Amino acid sequence: MDKWVGKVAVVTGASSGIGAATCRRLVDSGMIVVGFARREVRLKELRKELIGKLGEFHYYIVDLCLEQNIQEAFAWVKSTLKSVDVLVNNAGVWRNSDALGNPQDWKLMFDTNVLGSSICSKEAVNIMKELKINGHIININSDIGHYPPTLMANMSVYSATKFSSVSITESLRELLALHMLPIRVTSISPGLVDTEMVEDVMPGAPILKPSNIADAIIYVLAAPQYVNVSEMIIRPTSETMLPFIKDAFQELNINL
């Protein structure tokens, strides 16, 4: 990670969970980190915690559903810190809504999980391209974005947003390669992680820690520039959907 010391990283969803864990690891590695999130109280607490570390932590209040807010945030980072070397698109939202559910829930998930992260990537790439930066964009996706949750209806729309993000991540990697830009792109797709978003979703299931995902981010960043770890799926050991599939069948009065 020595090559990233003093470089600037933007982390979305920085106020808790994977985002906060990632900020801690990057600051410990000597990076200048800007956390994007809506909850200023949490961001202030994180900044206080990280005072005196090898790197620095700053924050900017951002609602990823507002394009102008995102643009203003990246403009602030560029003018204040003079660079964006790494972007970690971590922010995400899940609502208990199936394919016949509340359209406002669908919109929130797509606006945050797909459009918001894509706008962040666009803004970061524009800065990296202008400043000729060997950059890295990391999208935190989900293993549920790699297979349809057939018997978990309340995850269907969320899964669709992650399918979209996985696809967009690879398309972005291809596009930047075609333009011969030295910007690496990585999709990291965790299984169940112990964050606020998944509280009470699957009680008793094997679960990862936010720090496990932060470790994966450090791994892909530390690889030599000519190495792009483009796809990584991380699951808890012994993870299986079978108990939840059985529950779904039982609700439908079907024996399995």
Catalogue the unreliable spans: none
How does the major sheet shape up? Answer: 7 strands, parallel
* Sequence of secondary-structure elements: EHEHEHEHEHEHEH
The percent of residues in helical segments reads 40-55%
What is the total number of structural domains?
1
On the 0 to 100 scale, the average pLDDT is 91
Strand arrangement in the largest pleated sheet: 3-2-1-4-5-6-7
Strand content: 5-15%
Which class in CATH terms? Answer: Alpha Beta
CATH topology: Rossmann fold
Q: How many beta-strand elements? A: 7
Secondary-structure content class: alpha/beta
CATH architecture: 3-Layer(aba) Sandwich
Counted by DSSP, the helix tally is 7
Radius of gyration: 18 Å
Characterize the structure shown:
This protein is α/β, with parallel strands linked by helices. The protein has one domain: 3-Layer(aba) Sandwich (Rossmann fold), CATH 3.40.50. Helix content is 44%, strand content 14%. Strands 3-2-1-4-5-6-7 form a 7-stranded parallel β-sheet, with helices on both faces. Strand 5, helix 5 (156-178) and strand 6 (184-190) form a beta-alpha-beta unit. Helix 3 (67-81) packs parallel to helix 4 (103-131) and helix 4 packs parallel to helix 5 (156-178). The longest helix has 29 residues, at 103-131. The mean pLDDT is 91.
